[in-house]
Amino acid sequence: MDIYELCGYSAGILFASSLIPQVYKSFKTKELNDISIIWQLIFILALVLGIIYSYHNDLKPIYICSFIELLLMIILLLLKINSIIICKNKINTENNEIP
After folding, report:
1. Closest residue by Cα to residue 85 from 22, 32, 17
2. What does residue 30 show for φ and ψ, rounded to 5 degrees?
3. Cα angle for residues 24, 36, 71 (degrees, 5° grid)
4. Which residue has the higher pLDDT, 86 or 77?
5. 48 belongs to a structural domain
6. Distance between CA atoms of 43 and 52, rounded to whole angstroms?
């Protein structure tokens, strides 16, 4: 492994690990109102396209770390969808209550 490959793996690890605090915070607090679902979908699409490109060109530091980022973004997206469902159920329950 040369210095450039080491830089690639290091960058990928840092990019992927930068999502961990957000996923953890979102999981613990269940507060995802400030996270845009459109941003998440665009980010996921970009990761998938990047993985295809880097796999085709055998850029292991990129596609390995991008796959980890993709998994974290899917978790975050699922948390966001769950948050939306819970919020809608709560609103429906409150609207159906008799005063």
Report:
1. 32
2. 60, 20
3. 45
4. 77
5. yes
6. 14
pLDDT for 15 = 87
Whole-number Å distance between alpha carbons of 27 and 29: 6
* Number of domains within the chain: 1
Query: What token pair was written down for 62?
Result: 């990129």
Query: Is residue 35 included in any domain, yes or no?
Result: yes
Residue 99, in any domain of the structure: no
Rounded to whole angstroms, how far apart are CA atoms 61 and 13? 9
CATH of the domain at 55: 1.20.1280.290
16-34 burial, b at 16+ Cβ within 10 Å, e below that, comes to beebeeeeeebeeeeebee
Going by C-alpha positions, the residue among 53, 50, 78, 77 that lies closest to residue 66 is 50
By residue range, what is the domain housing residue 80? 3-89
How does pLDDT run across 39-62, given as a tens digit for each residue? 999 999 999 999 999 999 999 888
Asked if residue 64 belongs to a domain, the reply is yes
CA 80, CA 91: separation in Å to the nearest integer? 17
